[in-house]
Amino acid sequence: GNEKQTLIKLWDHCRAHPGEGSVVTYLHSKGSFHAKPENELLRSFITRGATSEECLGAVLNNAGDTCDVCSSRFSPLPHPHTSGNMWTA
User: Residue 54: helix, strand or coil by DSSP?
Assistant: First the structure.
């Protein structure tokens, strides 16, 4: 598959299982096709953030109140996004 197919399946899953306590994590293969130390560091950093207890707790503690997402880095510009595309929601 590819990223778009995976995200569509994830979206379908979330729509089929709404409600409090429903949490998903998306991990991208960021930089895995180019073996460089800087890619390893970036991938490690954003994976740790998306899979951290802090992210899970932040999403669960606010479930249902707002549109929640947690990642190592979130940027509002040029549009709201998680840099590296790894997140928990």
Answer: helix
**Which pLDDT belongs to residue 26?**
92
Cα–Cα distance between 44 and 40 in angstroms, integer?
6
Token couple for 42: 């970036």
Which among 52, 62, 51 has a CA at the least distance from the CA of 28?
Answer: 51
Give 34 or 23, the one with higher predicted confidence.
Answer: 23
Look at the block and give the residue holding tokens 């379908």.
12
Q: What is the C-alpha end-to-end distance of the chain, expressed in Å?
A: 22
Residue 13 carries which side chain, given as an amino acid letter? H
Does residue 37 surpass a pLDDT of 80?
yes
Torsion of CA 29, 34, 37, 39, to 10 degrees: -40
